[in-house]
Amino acid sequence: MGHLYGYFSTDPTYPEGVRCNIEAVYDPPQIGDQHGVQELDDANIHKVDMIASALGLERVGIMFTSNEQDIFLSADDIRRSAKLQQQYSFMHNSVKTNVPKFVTIVARKKGEEDQVDLEAYMISDQGQALERDNVFGPSKDKKMMTLRVPGDDDLVPTVLTKGTDVKEFPPDFFLVSLAYGQPADTTDHSILKIHEFPVMNRESPATPMEFSGYLKKYASDPSEKQFANFQLLLYLAEFMDLDTALNVA
User: Fold this and answer.
1) pLDDT per position in the chain (249 positions), as tens?
2) Which residues, at least 6 apart from 245, have a Cβ–Cβ distance to it below 8 Å?
3) Sign of the C-alpha dihedral, residues 124, 128, 133, 138?
């Protein structure tokens, strides 16, 4: 899984639409298997956020791979995205209330070929509110959301499905599908121009020799392009110091 960094702009396709423009992905420390992924504590995440901010970017979403072909998002996926949407809500000036802007992208294998399909979602306001108010409980079945079991002096609202009081219900009720795409020229990002550099928190960390080789390869490019590389800036913060990386950004 990875954190998505980018910015928001007016979407010319839809009246009053908002477009989420993704420029970079950061892979936090994690453990993954065929059942999902667990994000680990990350001592560097504040540096990543600061470098992104220096570039004019913010955390706009989450992306993860999945081999589940029979569901859109699992119950745990729904809850995680709802929490993140709540965390990254912002005050909307017109309606005078907090609204979410955090997106969830799933990368899934397509057919028998080595192709990947991307799916983009948000969680509905209702699903986000139910997670915020501690209504959901742990699910034994990834295909079903579960109500929390109330305590002696506690109340949990009733959920009706087709007029019937239920304790489990499909997660699809809370899915909002997003239109998505990419520019014809995928190399022409507006801020970050180069993506060739070892990715932080992967098996093989970047070395000073790779850094030197990168600088030689792009020595003829102007500095605003040469250093427009998110992973390179993250490496600078480790190889030199955070202030240097922020100044370059």
Assistant:
1) 999 999 999 888 888 888 999 999 999 999 988 778 889 999 999 999 999 999 999 999 999 999 888 899 999 999 999 999 999 988 777 777 778 889 999 999 887 777 888 999 999 999 999 999 999 999 999 999 999 998 888 889 888 988 999 999 999 999 999 988 877 776 666 889 898 999 999 888 899 999 999 999 999 999 999 999 999 999 999 999 999 999 999
2) 47, 51, 54, 233, 234, 236, 237
3) positive
User: Class for domain 2-186, per CATH?
Assistant: alpha beta
Collect all residues with Cβ–Cβ distance below 8 Å to 25 and sequence separation of at least 6: 2, 3, 4, 5, 63
What are the residue ranges spanned by the domains of the chain?
Answer: 2-186, 193-249
Residue 214's alpha-carbon distances to 51, 55, 204, in angstroms, are 20, 20, 16
Could you tell me if 59 and 100 are in contact, meaning their C-beta atoms sit under 8 angstroms apart?
Answer: no
Task: Please name the residue that has the structure tokens 């929490």.
Answer: 83
C-alpha 93/C-alpha 60 separation (Å) is: 19
Other CB atoms within 10 A of residue 55 CB: 21
Q: How far apart are CA 15 and CA 10, in angstroms?
A: 9
Q: Is the pTM of this model over 0.85?
A: yes
List CB contacts of 128: < 8 A, sequence separation 6 or more.
82, 85, 86, 100
